[in-house]
Design a protein that fits this description.
By secondary structure, the protein is of the alpha+beta class. The protein is built from seven helices and ten strands. It has a six-stranded mixed beta sheet with strand order 7-6-1-3-2-8. The chain has a two-stranded antiparallel sheet with strand order 4-5. A two-stranded antiparallel sheet has the order 9-10.
């Protein structure tokens, strides 16, 4: 009987430990994730690009860099809030590094344009990298330096102090794969199709390929 009780206690202890590890698993994974906030013009495009990258756990469209609290899309694009259209990228550093993401980012935009990006003009559409620490700033500056050497011209994309990131309205999230019907200048289209038509007509991929050649990231 004592042997049976001892065995049962041992099994119970093992099961309890296993359950503890299982419960801690998601927390441990979450604890290893990091975020990178960048602005690269239309946040639909940046979100769509980076959600395809292995090691990226998710991307959220939003606003940052300005002073206005709870900004709306209308307020930001109208100007005066100081906010950029930006994307918060959550990634697993064990699968992809911040430096790699920064290099991809710079090769997915026109970092020589300080007036916006592609067909989207104005302060809210300018490019930027947001750094939350001196180490992050240094990494961003290293990637910018490498981009300047590769292009042979000055990169105007700034490294700015990270401020609060405000997620954009729900209809902006995952716009590139949405199936809601929207009215566009091309007529009524599903969101995913409207996104494709917008990206093509805006000349984003064409400009990135012309600037970066074979090093262009994400350009179709």
């Amino acid at each position: 009987m004592r042997d049976t009780i001892s065995t049962l206690k041992a099994i119970t202890l093992i099961l309890a430990m296993a359950l503890g590890f299982w419960l801690q698993g998601p927390r441990a994974h979450a604890a290893t994730s990091e975020t990178l906030v960048v602005a690269g013009g239309c946040f639909w495009c940046v979100e769509a690009d980076f959600e395809k990258v292995p090691g990226v756990l998710g991307a959220v469209s939003g606003y940052t860099g300005g002073q206005a609290a709870n900004p709306t899309y209308k307020q930001v694009t109208a100007g005066g809030t100081g906010h950029y259209e930006a994307v918060e990228i959550t990634f697993d550093p064990a699968q992809i590094s911040r430096q790699q993401l920064l290099d991809l980012f710079l090769r997915s935009i026109d970092p020589t344009d300080d007036g916006g990006q592609f067909c989207d003009r104005g302060a809210s559409y300018r490019s930027a990298i947001f750094a939350a620490s001196p180490a992050q700033r240094q990494m961003a500056q290293q990637s910018i330096g490498a981009a300047e050497r590769a292009l042979g011209v000055k990169v105007v994309t700034p490294v700015l102090p990270a401020t609060r990131f405000w997620p954009a309205e729900a209809y902006h999230q995952d716009y590139y794969k949405g199936q809601s019907l929207v009215l566009t200048r091309f007529g009524p289209l599903r969101q995913a199709k409207a996104y494709d038509r917008y990206r093509q007509s805006c000349g984003r991929d064409q400009r990135v390929k012309a600037l970066w050649g074979s090093a262009a990231a994400f350009a179709k």
